[in-house]
Amino acid sequence: MDNLEIGHHISHQFDAELASVLNHLMNMGGMVEQQIRDATESLIENNTTLAQQVVVGDTKINALEVAIDEECIRILAKRQPTAIDLRLVIAIFKTITDLERIGDQAERIARQTLNLGGRECPATFCESFGEMSSLVLQMVHATLDAFTRLDTQSAANTTMVDDKVDMLYVDILTQLLPRIEARPNQAGEHINMMWATRALERIGDHSCNICEYVIYFVKGKDVRHIGRDAMKKFQD
User: Fold this and answer.
1) 185 Cβ partners below 8 Å, 6+ apart?
2) Residue 46 burial (CB count, 10 A)
3) Does CATH place domain 12-235 in 3.40.50.150?
4) What are the pLDDT digits (tens) for 63-119?
5) CA dihedral in degrees (144, 145, 149, 151; nearest 10)?
6) For residues 223 and 216, what is the distance between their CA atoms, to the nearest angstrom?
7) What is the pLDDT of residue 235?
8) How far apart are CA 59 and CA 106, in angstroms?
9) How many beta carbons lie within 10 A of that of residue 26, not counting itself?
10) What is the predicted pLDDT for the residue at 8?
């Protein structure tokens, strides 16, 4: 873990402003986690009521993104931060964008539940989808924890988990594609399941993005697009 001091300014008000925006970011992260949990449960349990709650809840996440955005802009205008403070604000800007997109993907899963209209998913799909959703939720939680603790090692480790998510994604598509060919009259249902699975895969990608912002904030290094092998040096 990297030990950096955020609350270290002469102006205690500046410290309070940074603490406030970080707190709001973590609140947003908690809401997003719950949206993922509810959306995936709605699909597995065939719960259209829960799915509708997720769709409605997405507006709260969107509103929180706008509010945090405005907080960051005020900090930039008022404090004109430099060095690590500037990197922190940039990291927050980028993170809330990815969190909002994760929320969008959770909503997309919920909409697939609604599109299925009460029809149950195959048991084999539910089992694989449940395994993938558990892994994705672990990624999101670990990502937010890494941000809170400024832990670049944990952030780098979390990006490696995405390989497992991608493998499960391919496995589920391998299950569904033959079903579409064998039962063309049910193709729409299986395509809904494919879209839900794709949404989970995208959530994993957005989690990796946030992990990269953690490393950028702490180390001052842009690690986007550097590849898995290069990322491993941040695991130590």
Assistant:
1) none
2) 17
3) no
4) 999 999 999 999 999 989 888 889 999 999 999 999 999 999 999 999 999 999 878
5) -90
6) 7
7) 62
8) 12
9) 14
10) 60
How many residues in the chain? 236
> Can you tell me the mean pLDDT for 126-154?
95
The mean pLDDT value of the chain amounts to 90
Cβ atoms 147, 210 nearer than 8 A: yes
- In the prediction, which pLDDT does 118 show? 78
Distances (CA, A) of 150 to 4, 141, 160, 217: 7, 14, 18, 8
Cβ-based neighbours of 96, under 8 Å, separated by 6 or more? 25, 28, 64, 65, 68, 69
Backbone angles phi, psi at 67, to 5 degrees: -65, -45
Measured distance CA(201)–CA(46) in Å, rounded: 21
Cβ(147)–Cβ(214) below 8 Å: yes
Residue 72 and residue 119: Cα distance in Å, rounded?
A: 44
Question: Are the C-beta atoms of residues 83 and 89 closer than 8 Å to each other?
Answer: no
| Nearest by Cα to 132 from 174, 168, 172 | 168
When pLDDT is cut at 50, 70 and 90, the band that residue 1 belongs to is very low
